[in-house]
Amino acid sequence: MNDEQKKAFLENTARNMKGVEEFIKIRHIGKLLQSRSRLWQGCG
Q1: pTM, whole model, 2 decimals?
Q2: According to the model, what pLDDT value does residue 44 have?
Q3: Rounded distance, CA 34 to CA 3, Å?
Q4: What are phi and psi of 2, to 5 degrees?
Q5: Considering only Cβ atoms within 10 Å of each terminal Cβ, which end of the chain, N or C, has fewer?
């Protein structure tokens, strides 16, 4: 791999990591909302 390819590879990797982090956050928030709505239903 030459320097340009390395740079592109690292940028892609960084972008993928960021995407994964966002995905995990969104899933986590979704789970929180689900469990919270279940609690509300239990109280109602």
Answers
A1: 0.58
A2: 54
A3: 46
A4: -90, 180
A5: C
> Using one digit for the tens of pLDDT, what is the confidence trace for 3-43?
999 999 999 999 999 999 999 999 999 999 988 887 777 76
Residue 31, CB-side half-sphere exposure with 13 Å CA sphere: 6
Identity of residue 16: N
Rounded-to-integer distance, Cα 20 and Cα 34, Å: 21
Q: Is 9 helix (H, G, I), strand (E, B) or coil?
A: helix
Place of tokens 């592109």: 8
Q: Please tell me what DSSP assigns to residue 44.
A: -
Give which of 27, 28, 31, 33 is closest to 41, Cα–Cα: 33
Location of structure tokens 């995990």? 24
